[in-house]
Design a protein that fits this description.
2 domains; rod-shaped; membrane; Alpha-Beta Plaits; cell division; alpha+beta; FtsX_ECD; 9 helices
Length: 301
């Protein structure tokens, strides 16, 4: 196979269909950028789940005067009884550590959390419940505390903080799935556009193809330039999307969000280098497959 002739045909094809090639580059670039963003978002969600679920606490809220508890507000005796249950041989093996927060401490924390919010003006210390904050050795065993303490005298409720985290992660997952859906649609558009570009390129060179067939050129020799054209266009789009992903991680996530939200461990280039090769592989494989299908289907070589 004469590689010089093949690359000459590739160059002619790219020049003749320059506008379509640019369209393929742009569609591939946009679609793979969505794919990369969705992949990074999934990695971020997994990383946050690992971090926050391990630190999520179970809150044992004691009754206040404003709660509709059968026995009224929690007494010193009911608080001590809950403490003894947490230290009992039945529950203690599940607990890593726990601490007690009285109403004054809870009120100070509430004021700090809602500083500048009008709601802080209407809340008084007696409305804040006394709370046991419990860290479990295995966060998945919060049911042990729920079943044991929920019916204890003076206990208003037992709440696993992971239920709040689940709501946040569900929103993030929805955003990630939306990005994936858009990326799939864009990838379909890129595949169709590549196939159309190859068909137009083949049609514009039908005379040359006929001559090559008459002189005994193999199907593979005729198909190769068209496949390379599609791969080159998609590869350029893939590289552009990789550059955008690198800029996104390096300057927006790590440079902008990281210093402003230090409580979250954001993804870095360690995760970025996992996504970037994936984008190039997806772009090249889809381009090669769609170009190969188009030339086989419409040229009957």
């Amino acid at each position: 196979m004469r590689f010089g002739l093949i690359w000459s045909e590739v160059g002619n094809g790219l020049r003749r269909n320059l506008s379509m090639v640019v369209s393929v580059v742009l569609v591939t670039f946009i679609s793979l950028t969505f794919v990369g963003t969705a992949a990074l978002l999934q990695l971020q969600i997994a990383q946050m789940k690992t971090y926050w679920y391990d630190r999520a606490q179970v809150a044992v809220y004691m009754c206040t005067e404003t709660d509709n508890c059968p026995g009224g507000a929690a007494t010193a005796q009911s608080v001590e009884a809950v403490k003894k249950q947490l230290e009992s041989p039945e529950i203690a093996p599940y607990i890593q550590k726990f601490y007690f927060q009285d109403q004054k401490q809870g009120y100070e924390q509430f004021k700090q959390q809602f500083k500048g919010n009008q709601i802080a003006d209407y809340v008084t210390p007696d409305m804040i419940p006394q709370t046991f904050w419990v860290n479990l050795k295995d966060p998945n065993r919060s049911d042990v505390l729920t079943e044991t303490l929920s019916s204890s005298p003076g206990v208003q409720s037992v709440v696993d903080q992971r239920s709040y985290l689940d709501q946040i992660f569900n929103i993030l997952n929805a955003a990630s799935l939306t990005a994936i859906g858009i990326a799939i649609l864009m990838l379909v558009a890129a595949v169709l556009l590549i196939a159309t570009t190859i068909r137009l390129s083949a049609f514009s060179r039908r005379r040359e193809i006929g001559i090559m067939r008459l002189v005994g050129a193999s199907n593979r020799f005729i198909q190769t330039p068209f496949i390379i054209e599609g791969v080159i266009a998609a590869l350029i789009g893939s590289i552009l999307s990789c550059v955008v992903i690198w800029l996104l991680v390096q300057y927006f996530v790590r440079g902008f969000l990281g210093p402003r939200i230090p409580s979250i461990n954001f993804v870095g280039m360690e995760q970025g280098w996992l996504v970037i090769p994936l984008l190039i592989v997806v772009g090249v494989v889809l381009a090669a497959a769609s170009a190969n299908f188009a030339i086989k289907r419409y040229l009957r070589v």
